Amino acid sequence: MTTAGLVDQYGRVATDLRVSLTDRCNLRCTYCMPAEGLAWLPNSLVLTDDEVIRLVRVAVERLGVDEVRFTGGEPLIRPGLTKIVTAAAELSPRPRLSLTTNGIGLDKLARPLRDAGLDRVNVSLDTLDAERFDRLTHRRRLPDVLAGLAAAQAAGLAPVKINSVLMRDINEDEAPALLRFALAEGYQLRFIEQMPLDAQHAWDRIRMVTAKEILSTLEAEFTLLPDPAERGGAPAETWLVDGFTGSDGRPAKVGVIGSVTRPFCGDCDRTRLTADGQVRNCLFAREESDLRGALRGGADDEEIARRWRTAMWAKRAGHGIDDPTFLQPARPMSAIGG
Ligand code: SAM
Ligand code: SF4
């Protein structure tokens, strides 16, 4: 068996696989999709559970992937999720397994997912205010998200991380309140700069809440100290929150993912698989490589691995958002898998 990894022409090695399990979602976050939703992928194009499991196996066994994150759309609405996690946890070498979710339904699924082998979750929560939550997501589901977070903590899916996106004129002032909540509950909070990946193409660089702005708002209330831990390929820059302890008994941390103003492309170790079986070498890639066709056309594992390596070799040096020729990818975030 060949085990050459996913190397690109700049020497980066992708070991972290993001698998989108569906492009559908039960929320409508304004920075992600329009209130009326999107034209979903037809079922016939979406990988079956067995196809997903096979591609994850190829990635782990032949391509050196050691971390698998399930995402979407909303991965908790995929009926086969527990089966897929169980199969991924049986792979050798066993990859670390995590899930990015909006948290709706996690109150019931946290324990079964933990039992299936899931290690961790990231739950997206942008506001603690019910009225703002409705405005941001077009759904009245804040209590469900809070219940999902608590269930994840109780099930030991630790550390439970929260992802927050701040939007101008909606929740731009909420960074300190979100951090207070996370510190009190023992969650690890990370802010993500809003990226040009919304289906409506409404992103506006000038109105974006920047990493710098988020940090200065936090510093008005908290003392943030440099985190001595190695960042590696992690997208979040992290700080220790002086005087607070995390649920693991270590100093509490807060993170900021400055994808736009502080890009980390040079250290990126990601490869992505969409729900319809396309490899993407970057969130912002405009090209994809079709593995579903290969899979359904009878390709063996080595042929699939070869195609995947070729796709990753072509990864660009950076996302190019600041380049005047930048074009937003055709797929929105919900269909790529964030
Ligand atoms: N539905 C799940 C969720 O919301 O966590 C998983 C998919 S969602 C696309 C993954 C992450 O991408 C979420 O944390 C969400 O906040 C983030 N996201 C979506 N659109 C974004 C955008 N335009 N800019 C920055 N982050 C975005
Ligand atoms: Fe759904 Fe996640 Fe997009 Fe929000 S960010 S609409 S929860 S896919």
UniProtKB/TrEMBL annotation:
Pathway: Cofactor biosynthesis; molybdopterin biosynthesis. SMART domains: Elp3 (SM00729). The keyword Repressor does not apply. InterPro entries: Aldolase_TIM, Elp3/MiaA/NifB-like_rSAM, MoaA, MoaA-like, MoaA_NifB_PqqE_Fe-S-bd_CS, MoaA_twitch, MoCo_biosynth_MoaA/MoaC, rSAM. Signal peptide: none annotated. It holds the Pfam family Mob_synth_C. Its EC number is 4.1.99.22. Residues 9-235 form the Radical SAM core domain. It catalyses: GTP + AH2 + S-adenosyl-L-methionine = (8S)-3',8-cyclo-7,8-dihydroguanosine 5'-triphosphate + 5'-deoxyadenosine + L-methionine + A + H(+). GTP binds at residues 18, 69, 100, 161, 270-272. Keywords: 4Fe-4S, GTP-binding, Iron, Iron-sulfur, Lyase, Metal-binding, Molybdenum cofactor biosynthesis, Nucleotide-binding, S-adenosyl-L-methionine. Gene3D superfamilies: Aldolase class I. It comes from the Bacteria. Belongs to the radical SAM superfamily. MoaA family. This is GTP 3',8-cyclase. It comes from Phytohabitans flavus. The lineage of its organism: Bacteria, Bacillati, Actinomycetota, Actinomycetes, Micromonosporales.
